[in-house]
Amino acid sequence: MAERTYAEAGVDYRKIEPFKRAMIDAAKKTTAFPNRRDVFVETSVLHSHGGVYEYRGGKPHLWCKTIEGLGNKNWIAEWMYRFSGEGRSYYDAIGFDTAMMAVNDCIAQGALPVIFEDLIDAGDSEWFHDETRANDFATGILQACEASGMALVAGESAALKFLVKATPPVESAPSLACAVTGLIAPKDRLITGEKLGVGDRIIGIASSGIHSNGASLAIKLGMELPDKFMTKLPSGRTLGDALLVPTVCYVGLMETLLENEVDIHALLPGTGSGVSKLAFDDRRYTYRVHSWPEVPEIFLHYRENGLSIEDCVTTFNWGVGYFLFVPEHEAERAVSLANAAGYSAMEVGRVEDGERQVIYEPEGLTLQPAGH
Fold first, then answer.
1. According to its UniProt record, which protein family does this protein belong to (predicted)?
2. In this structure, which of 5, 120, 214, 219 has its CB flanked by the most CB atoms within 10 Å?
3. How are the residues of the chain apportioned to helix, strand and coil, as percentages rounded to the nearest 5?
4. How far is CA 357 from CA 25, 292, 325, 360, in A?
5. What is the pTM of this model?
């Protein structure tokens, strides 16, 4: 009786169970992934009330923990799942994206991911009951853990009827968040950004598209189109499909740079605030961008449909998903190593003395720091 009453109030554990089962099955496949970094998970308590793990290496070390949320991107996946007629949930990509939000921030300190935890809050129990979506999401998390070298050790899946409500025409879309724990070993690999200085070269590493930033604007503009997210881009791909391309995992890049002892002065994920985020440091530096990689089709779509160039480059990553700041003598080697590791890298600019700003020469723009 109590369980039925609780279900009537909006929390039906029987409907949440398929999702939990899929996530537990995925978690069991991840436990050995951090072993290559000498981190071992205690599997006897997996998915109890918290993950238990230890570092068995002999190096002085530090831990870095990053907590992040996906934002609104999965609203697009929900729209496509319901209205595209393709029958694809896109939640394998969304699971990967969710993890990458924290993974790519964690590595900015020189940490390599080892432990992953998720937090999924939906507005109703029904959302969890869709086995296609549940299995796709679990698959995406598994792929993210394997790519990053981390283990899923714990998670929380909750139906919050009175708190989480999607904007129509999407009926239900959860809030997706996670935490990633990274290992810095030896601890002198810690990257603080303090070494950033005049003369440093800026290396841009290509993105795969919007990643998970600017989704709110993408939703607003997409819903204003006659065909909405089924709008065809010049390549023939739909707008929704292009927006849901998974975020790049930059862990392999970080591993390569650390193993080759590249002198990294600072690292910066190319996320919110776009190109203007380059002026992230409080010191008086000018970031002169003289070159830029090919801009992905998805961004050109917005530019060609009336979005100003200023809005484009300060909202979206505009084609660069990660920035490295290295001394001049390391620039060529850093680019070569990144490209050899399977990333697309190029020198895009330099750090100069002067007013804190970004001079984006490809479009003749001067950009103020984010929030100014």
1. Belongs to the AIR synthase family.
2. 214
3. 40, 25, 35
4. 48, 17, 16, 10
5. 0.95
